[in-house]
Amino acid sequence: MADLKHPRLFIRSYLSFEECKELEFIHKSSSTVGYRPNVFSTTISHLIATNSSHLIMPLIPIRERLKDKLEEFFGCEYELFVEFTGLISWCKGASIGWHSDNNRPYLRQRDFAAVCYLNSCGRDFNGGFFHFQDGEPTTVMPMAGDVLMYTADNRNIHSVDEITDGERLTLTLWFSRDASHDEDVKLISLFSNNLLHSSVPDSCIPLPASNNMYWFSQDQASDELLGFNICWARLHVLGGTELLDHEFVNILHALQVVHFYCWKASALQSFKVRVGTSKIVELSKSQAEKVSDLKSLLLKDTELAETIFYSLTCRENELHCFDWTNFVAAIAAWEDYAWKLRKEIRSSLAYWRAHQSLYNVQSDKRL
Ligand SMILES: O=C(O)CCC(=O)C(=O)O
Ligand SMILES: [Fe+2]
């Protein structure tokens, strides 16, 4: 190990661009308001609770690779349990001062942290540099694919500068030596209840959680008079609220499909279309009224929503415009994608239950 005084590891380009994009899709279509101001998070238990368990499948091999790498580097093979896995984004105004990650009585079980950067400073957001108080590296400028691993104790006191623009996204994991804090055991029991004993017919349509999990206001204490529903806000910044019609069972369903379209279309380099060249489908009068009623109810502070969720690239005069034909194709592709993952999770669950551990069954040599 390089530095015993400050045990840490920084690896560039550990995750591929495609892995980052897939996790971005999952987060942007599933997040809830987070645990700190201007922070949003997607936890595995939330994915399970919203009938989106299958969306954890892309996380499983990444999580496993991170754990193996961390155990190897810090010399604690087979000693660690994942205590928490989450996709976490910080928007304009979010920051955190000097701290260590086990600095609260209820966080004492945390032994290590792994932070994977899923998008890039200067391109997707501004600000948000990571600093260690002592030792090398001192400062990390987050770039998509990079990973930072460090001990959760006071040998690695760190801070994150305020985000000044855009949305900074990470996959963050904490690890513990204490088996009673193994999140896998808790998650497997949630999966089992959800996927095995469900009385409702099998479906990939997400089910939104309670409204307060999606309600953002600058002052969390204020009531629902100001602020916005983050699902509506995310659709709004993509121009997608004009597309809502009978195709979508609920707002989360629309958000997943629209973000899926954004993910796949940008991979094909055909997503950014100059203003004026796209065909937008006109809604019927009654559909338009319904959307507008919902919008006024759920997007009370449009300006704030745009400040929080507009990406930097959106502002560069290049607007995201929808091509209706591609969009209809994306609806079908999203369904295929979801069912494929659903099948995978169903076939993995028996192995997970037997081992009480979430792992990549398909690549497992024991089979
Ligand atoms: O996102 C980061 O770079 C680190 C965040 C952090 O320090 C924390 O969540 O404790
Ligand atoms: Fe931290």
UniProtKB/TrEMBL annotation:
<dbReference type="GO" id="GO:0032963">
    <property type="term" value="P:collagen metabolic process"/>
</dbReference>
<dbReference type="InterPro" id="IPR039575">
    <property type="entry name" value="P3H"/>
</dbReference>
<keyword id="KW-0677">Repeat</keyword>
<keyword id="KW-0479">Metal-binding</keyword>
<dbReference type="InterPro" id="IPR006620">
    <property type="entry name" value="Pro_4_hyd_alph"/>
</dbReference>
<dbReference type="GO" id="GO:0019797">
    <property type="term" value="F:procollagen-proline 3-dioxygenase activity"/>
</dbReference>
<dbReference type="GO" id="GO:0031418">
    <property type="term" value="F:L-ascorbic acid binding"/>
</dbReference>
<dbReference type="InterPro" id="IPR044862">
    <property type="entry name" value="Pro_4_hyd_alph_FE2OG_OXY"/>
</dbReference>
<keyword id="KW-0223">Dioxygenase</keyword>
<keyword id="KW-0560">Oxidoreductase</keyword>
<dbReference type="Pfam" id="PF13640">
    <property type="entry name" value="2OG-FeII_Oxy_3"/>
</dbReference>
<protein>
    <recommendedName>
        <fullName>procollagen-proline 3-dioxygenase</fullName>
        <ecNumber>1.14.11.7</ecNumber>
    </recommendedName>
</protein>
<dbReference type="GO" id="GO:0005506">
    <property type="term" value="F:iron ion binding"/>
</dbReference>
<feature type="domain" description="Fe2OG dioxygenase">
    <location>
        <begin position="72"/>
        <end position="177"/>
    </location>
</feature>
<dbReference type="InterPro" id="IPR005123">
    <property type="entry name" value="Oxoglu/Fe-dep_dioxygenase_dom"/>
</dbReference>
<keyword id="KW-0408">Iron</keyword>
